Amino acid sequence: GMHRDIWANQYQELIKDDVNSHSVRKLQSSIIICCLDKPVGEFVNTDRDIGAERVSNVHRTLHGGGTHLNSANRWFDKTLVFCIAPDGGSGCYLEHSIMDGVSSIALTNYCLSQRDILDGLAASSCDEDLENLPEIHPLKWNLSSSLRSSIITAGQELDKIAARLGASCFFFREFGHTTLKSYGIGSDGFVQLAMQLTHYRMHGYHTATYESVSTQRFKLARTDTVRSPCVESNALAKIFDQKNVSMHEKAKLMRGALDKHFQQVRMAAAGQAFDRHLFGLRMIATENGLPTPEIFSDPTYSQSCHFRLSTSQVRSPFAIHLAFGPVVDDGYGIAYLIRDRDILVTVTSFNDCPTTDHDLFAATMEKTLSDLFQLVLALPPPSKI
Prior knowledge:
9 strands; 3-stranded mixed sheet; 48% helix; single chain; alpha/beta
């Protein structure tokens, strides 16, 4: 829960002690950290409880649920952490500064693909494996009064963050990638457009939207930004719920918005977006003691970077609910996974923001996905050539 600059100072204080330094090195040199969590609630097999269980698992994985639950059972600086609950619920979180979701989902997909093999091994050799485990040694710490005080403060701040964050999950089962592809529709662009329409339905205006795209075709590259809104999507949002506008006209605008999104994704993946280039320009100025270029103080630029919709997806054949928090106080964090026959979505927002509502956004988006598909049905059938 600490600000990074404060934690950096406390970290230096922590590792001055040889015992602490040894324990920190053990944590840092490990491949992963596995957190064995306390239970956070009991759920039964009903639609309502299944949804509540998903939301509970999102909170438990993202921040631990508060220091009274599992937040103190974490080492948040670790690159990759697996959190496992007594009921079998599990999650994986990553420290984002050095790693992206593409890498963590590859590992997660592999682990889940081995479940049947691991279940067989567990049934046949669990007792033998337990006998051969290396001895477990608890890590030791020498904590000064100032470090103990800092830990208490950090816990209080983390509890505030955990209490602020709200989440809602839904499992959209009407269609997925396969159906959309059969109509010649890109599934990612379709979901992105549904998000923009949802925001317009709720708030009455288009907003800056961040979509992450991988640039890993380049050496040392990671991601860049697709800014999903465009003239066509804005025009569609304005008439989407107007009964006096024909389905044909709406479908035409939808097709234009989807085509524009496809072009933007291709350009960003090829290094032709501008956000990372401008970020580099800003860092060059800062590191060399130069004046910050005027563009960064321009109100239009600032508004364009206030991403009320921060979005990202990964690919997996498994039913995984991804999650991250909003990047601005009055925004939403929207993680989604498009599978062949369904779409999984997690929406987060801050509970203390009077203008956002993650539950309402999720419910509205679920309806918007269905409504938008009616425009797909109004398009001319795709060519079979």
